[in-house]
């Protein structure tokens, strides 16, 4: 599952530099997550760093429009980082 930044975002700039996949960028009003780059930090960390550093609870949530299992997230990580881990 990719993550989604909700309208609760206060644009504090904490999440964007922490994303190891460069999936977070500024949108029109708030930060947004590129579903094609978000692996929920699979391949990097045990938990999504954006959620860990966000100062507002429940601002970064699972995106119900982009449901992926752990294997799919791992495969996305491998493709993004051009490794031979499959």
TrEMBL record:
<dbReference type="InterPro" id="IPR047927">
    <property type="entry name" value="YfhL-like"/>
</dbReference>
<protein>
    <submittedName>
        <fullName>Ferredoxin</fullName>
    </submittedName>
</protein>
<keyword id="KW-0813">Transport</keyword>
<keyword id="KW-0411">Iron-sulfur</keyword>
<dbReference type="GO" id="GO:0046872">
    <property type="term" value="F:metal ion binding"/>
</dbReference>
<dbReference type="GO" id="GO:0051539">
    <property type="term" value="F:4 iron, 4 sulfur cluster binding"/>
</dbReference>
<dbReference type="Pfam" id="PF12838">
    <property type="entry name" value="Fer4_7"/>
</dbReference>
<dbReference type="InterPro" id="IPR050157">
    <property type="entry name" value="PSI_iron-sulfur_center"/>
</dbReference>
<keyword id="KW-0249">Electron transport</keyword>
<dbReference type="GO" id="GO:0005737">
    <property type="term" value="C:cytoplasm"/>
</dbReference>
<dbReference type="InterPro" id="IPR017896">
    <property type="entry name" value="4Fe4S_Fe-S-bd"/>
</dbReference>
<keyword id="KW-0677">Repeat</keyword>
<keyword id="KW-0004">4Fe-4S</keyword>
<dbReference type="InterPro" id="IPR017900">
    <property type="entry name" value="4Fe4S_Fe_S_CS"/>
</dbReference>
<keyword id="KW-0479">Metal-binding</keyword>
<feature type="domain" description="4Fe-4S ferredoxin-type">
    <location>
        <begin position="1"/>
        <end position="29"/>
    </location>
</feature>
<keyword id="KW-0408">Iron</keyword>
